[in-house]
Design brief:
The protein is about 75% helix and about 0% strand. It has about 300 residues and is an all-alpha fold. Helix 1 (about 5-40) runs antiparallel to helix 9, helix 3 (about 75-100) runs antiparallel to helix 7 and helix 6 (about 130-145) packs antiparallel against helix 12.
């Protein structure tokens, strides 16, 4: 009897991983568009952020109460740091979406792999490899092309978009540490809980009763962001994080189309070149770091803490 090749299961798993990543990319694009639309409906970014985190926290807390998911925190300092970095990242991201171009906010937020490489020594004890520095120069040139600061003016929304990328990088580095001791549901519950507390002052400082379209935007943001996280978590069971982090950048392309055709974003040559430099640098960094880690004889050793 002819046996099925062993690669069949691997190929099937790979397809599931790709499908999960692409679904997450689409949902993250929907989340960004929903947050932008909510701002156009007069809903402040603080309210959008608070609603996004509160709904996620309530659902996860209920599932944990019913013992559908496991919630067993252990490393409280790192869980809090993950929630703090992730919560602030989303706050900055939604501010950038509300006050600036959707395309700029998404591109600058997607700069996080650059800062992951830059901050890895401080957070998880990995030395910055020599090949990182020239790639960082290229990436920062791309950031300057997107922001285009002048002595007279810097777009505040773009600065917050870049800040969201920096904070997202810190969140990812803390996530690497937490994977050693915590399950994904515990991490997500802390992210939503701490994020809710961070967003609460901004919400209560300026609460607004949304219009029906505003409510629709808030619900869209909440559903898209939470289902995107679940899809991403599912996808990483079937593919390497290095591959997924490159593929997820499809969301930037989707958001650029939405920004241009729906919200009237201006997409010119400097923005396109800057986006290519940022995304390309992030992809190259991710691939090179993964290759170096997979070949311990050529990679630098991790420092001891």
């Amino acid at each position: 009897m002819k046996q099925e090749p062993e690669t069949t299961g691997v190929a099937s798993g790979s397809r599931r991983g790709v499908a999960g990543i692409l679904l997450a990319a689409l949902l993250f694009s929907v989340m960004a568009a929903g947050a932008k639309f909510a701002s156009l409906q007069g809903v402040p970014y603080g309210e959008v952020t608070f609603f996004r985190f509160t709904t996620g926290f309530v659902v996860l807390a209920a599932l944990a109460r019913m013992r559908v998911i496991e919630f067993c925190p252990g490393n409280f300092p790192w869980l809090f740091l993950r929630g703090l970095a992730g919560g602030l990242a989303i706050c900055c991201y939604f501010f950038a979406l509300s006050g600036g171009a959707l395309t700029n906010a998404v591109v600058l937020n997607a700069s996080y792999p650059i800062f992951v490489a830059l901050f890895s020594a401080a957070f998880i004890g990995e030395r910055v490899r020599g090949f990182v520095y020239p790639i960082l120069v290229v990436a920062f040139a791309g950031i300057l092309l997107v922001i285009r600061p002048t002595p007279q003016h810097v777009n505040t929304a773009d600065i917050f978009g870049l800040a969201s990328g920096v904070l997202a990088a810190i969140g990812i580095l803390t996530l690497r540490k937490l994977r050693e001791t915590e399950n994904v549901w515990t991490i997500l519950t802390f992210l939503n809980g701490v994020g809710m507390l961070i967003a609460a002052p901004f919400f209560f400082a300026r609460p607004v009763c949304p219009t029906p379209l505003g409510w629709a935007a808030l619900i869209t943001v909440s559903l898209a962001s939470n289902f995107a996280q679940v899809s991403l978590t599912y996808a990483y069971k079937y593919m390497r994080a290095s591959e997924g982090s490159i593929l997820i950048k499809v969301s930037v392309v989707i958001s650029a189309f939405v920004g241009y055709f729906v919200f009237g974003d201006r997409i010119d040559l400097p923005l396109v070149v800057g986006a290519v430099l940022i995304l390309g640098s992030g992809a190259v960094l991710t691939a090179l770091i993964h290759r170096a880690e997979a070949n311990p004889h050529t990679s630098q050793i991790r420092t001891n803490k």
